[in-house]
Write a structure and sequence with these properties.
InterPro entries: HARBI1-like, HARBI1_dom. With 250 residues, this protein is an alpha/beta fold. Helices cover 40% and strands 15% of the residues. Strands 3-2-1-6-7 form a five-stranded mixed β-sheet.
């Protein structure tokens, strides 16, 4: 997939604001284990904690459940955080080369915040990557932020569910070598986007999509001492959501 342009990411953020009430969001990030037959001479490298062999699809989805960027090939043994840290997406973000637009003022406020990707607790907290507050630290404001983030983040979960329900080869072990398995997964992701562009997106994320996806639940990732700036950005969104009285429960 081509790297998204700055204008494209701005349009994505407007969709997230309108559809999911999370302004300045340019995508939701997650990983999914895709079953494969045991690769030759791989030992336990592709064996995940759910006790099957897999390669990892890492994806960023937009508000309409299309894939903005994907990477396929992480070994099943890796955590989502480990897959992200080793990814070209992480390198682009760290270098400031992902075409993220300049910060803008959040709607109906005087708070200027950067554009961000949303993810779950398996990922690190960065200036450009928001994760939930830990449960042990929650108060009402932080819980409100977590609810809002969770609502926006589910677009990538729904995208995985739609992907697997449409291209059912992903619901069982892929009977090829890893190289061709990666190609099959990438092709399915491209076709997924084409179908949504032609047929339109489903505004709902129904339970069927969410339960049939064979995505993994992995252990919570370490936060790896987030920077003060990353904490400040999350605090900005927390304050904004609370002051705008937009409590959302999912």
């Amino acid at each position: 997939m081509p790297q998204p342009s700055e204008d494209h990411l701005k349009n994505v953020s407007l969709d997230f604001e309108e559809m999911w009430n999370f302004p300045n969001c340019i995508g939701s990030l997650d990983g999914k284990h895709c079953r494969v037959k045991r690769p030759r001479k791989s030992g336990s490298a592709y064996y995940n904690y759910k006790h099957y062999f897999s390669i990892v699809l890492q994806a960023v989805a937009d508000a309409k459940k299309r894939f903005i960027t994907i990477e396929v090939g992480g070994r099943g043994k890796q955590s989502d955080g480990g897959t992200f840290n080793a990814s070209s997406l992480n390198r682009l973000l760290e270098r400031g080369a992902f075409n993220i637009p300049e910060p803008r003022t959040l709607p109906n406020s005087n708070i200027t915040a950067p554009y961000v990707i949303v993810a779950d607790e398996a990922y690190p907290l960065k200036e450009y990557l928001m994760r939930p507050y830990p449960q042990r630290t929650l108060n009402q404001e932080r819980e409100n932020f977590n609810n809002r983030l969770s609502r926006a983040r589910k677009t990538v979960e729904c995208a995985f569910g739609i992907l697997c329900n449409k291209w059912r080869v992903l619901l069982k072990p892929i009977e090829t070598d890893v190289k061709h398995g990666r190609l099959i997964i990438k092709t399915a992701c491209l076709l997924h986007n084409i179908v949504i562009d032609i047929d339109g997106h489903d505004s709902n994320c129904n339970s069927e999509n969410r339960t049939t996806q064979t995505r993994h639940r992995r252990q919570t990732g370490r936060n790896n001492n987030p920077s003060n700036r990353a904490k400040q950005v999350r605090n900005q969104f927390t304050k904004y959501f609370w002051e705008n009285n937009r409590l959302i429960f999912t």
